[in-house]
Amino acid sequence: MKNLAQVIRETWGHPAVTKLLGVSVAFGLGTDPSFQRPVDWEAETMGDVYQLALQDAYRALPWKILDLLRVASAACGPVPFVLKTDDDVFINVYALRDLLEDLRDRSDEKNFWCLVWEGMPVIRTNHSKWYLSKEKYGEDLYPHYCSGSAYILNSVVLEAILGLSNRTLPFVSAEDVHVTGMLAREAGIGHVQIGNRYAFASTDEEKIASGQTIFAHLGPDADIRMEQIWNYLASKKEKTNRSSDGL
């Protein structure tokens, strides 16, 4: 069975595709002795895996993402944009490239571009993995934050977030809330809503192929769906190219 990193490399993150579009794809994870040998092999063979010296657990997610953003900053230097995404999200990289081109003149703005969650209540149900007590976080609503499935930031935001990463703030184990909500509010970073480019419950292949949907969260069976959607998208691209060539 293929892991999702391998599936991504064979679909929307294929080196031939990303090189053509001028983007780079890398994978980040924490430590887990149960899968260390295949990780070592993949890191040495593919050269695009970054493993962090922290446990790959839900409560460690904020530190994991901040460490990976720190790696991206060190490895890439000032770049127009960085995209953080989960591995079970399909990305129409062609439509993403077009969106980033449209945003190029805004690459110095202090904003996240994402599906923005507004006025989300703090979960007080103590059996929930998102539970947060009143003592640890007194407010009843979270600040605006991005869906953790995928969000875009520029070098200005990246450096601002990393500059505050060691600041003592109420700890929220939800990475998207902590990084794009708590730290963003502290740093004076805004959010630009592009929620119409996301799909969750229904991943319509035609909407993805047309570029209407850029980020499609696939969830269970993501490896199978990712290949199916990529094959559909590649087929549509080929037909468009053949038509343009008059064939």
TrEMBL record:
The alphabetized UniProt keywords are: Glycosyltransferase, Golgi apparatus, Membrane, Signal-anchor, Transferase, Transmembrane, Transmembrane helix
Q: Does the keyword Membrane apply?
A: yes
One Gene Ontology cellular component: Golgi membrane
Q: What is its main location?
A: Golgi
List the molecular function annotations (GO) for this entry. hexosyltransferase activity
Q: What class of enzyme is it?
A: transferase
Look up and give the membrane topology term: Single-pass type II membrane protein
Location relative to the cell: Golgi apparatus membrane
**A GO biological process held by the record:** protein O-linked glycosylation
In which domain of life is the source organism classified? Eukaryota
EC code: 2.4.1.-
The record's listing under InterPro entries reads: Glyco_trans_31
**Family label:** Belongs to the glycosyltransferase 31 family.
Output the PANTHER family linked to this UniProt entry: BETA-1,3-GALACTOSYLTRANSFERASE 6, BETA-1,3-N-ACETYLGLUCOSAMINYLTRANSFERASE
Recorded protein name is Hexosyltransferase
Identify the species of origin.
Caerostris extrusa
The protein's gene is named B3GALT2
